[in-house]
Known about the structure:
It is built from twelve helices and four strands, in the order ααβααβααβααβαααα. It is of the alpha/beta class.
Amino acid sequence: xxxxxxxxxxxxxxxxxxxxxxxxxxxxxxxxxxxxxxxxxxxxxxxxxxxxxxxxxxxxxxxxxxxxxxxxxxxxxxxxxxxxxxxxxxxxxxxxxxxxxxxxxxxxxxxxxxxxxxxxxxxxxxxxxxxxxxxxxxxxxxxxxxxxxxxxxxxxxxxxxxxxxxxxxxxxxxxxxxxxxxxxxxxxxxxxxxxxxxxxxxxxxxxxxxxxxxxxxxxxxxxxxxxxxxxxxxxxxxxxxxxxxxxxxxxxxxxxxxxxxxxxxxxxxxxxxxxxxxxxxxxxxxxxxxxxxxxxxxxxxx
Length: 302
């Protein structure tokens, strides 16, 4: 049995093949220049040329930056960085009608937990702005910064998406097709497709709100109890709960990467020590974190 995601992709390809004159598939990693070059040779031989390119390759990011490895960052950057460079190098002499760079609105607004994906799309936007220098013939180049598509695409299938896609924060596939065609026939180098009012856009303050009722609160003689009480208040405030057990898992209570960053900021401000994301990922309870903080406090006093 095939997974639902793959079955859905197969159905979409069958629908494309039914409505298009022909469908030719090449499976190539854009960062592999040799493979990409051979694929272009086969395509041009079969179709007697190449009219346009839509660069939509990408890998979604997700998660706290401190917990990501260099390899994870590179995996997200490769299609947008090395892939774009390879495409431009191989097509520099091709008399294309158009070259479309499919980017994301995160390149402009940023997005919590998406530092690698944001950087990848900023790179893509920069390539698009300078793309005219690569081609020997005039080629219409345009960047499309999409907010999100519903039902299809990267955001719709993401397992790390922190919100539900609806009419207020995404575009339907039908409207997306109409907008794509309209943009392709316009004369703009970069177009943002979004329901946000970018003039009024401000990032969610959950990441910067570190105000506390007890800044630099001195620890009492019973330090462990005091630390535990403060952590309990922080857990409740961050998770929006009135009560949290000392041995309850932060992530099982509804915590995620965004809330983890908020909790860590509050913990650093409350105890004046550096608690990193890896510590929270490994020690997810009030009791466990209390012991770690107590150990730090003891080391400082010694």
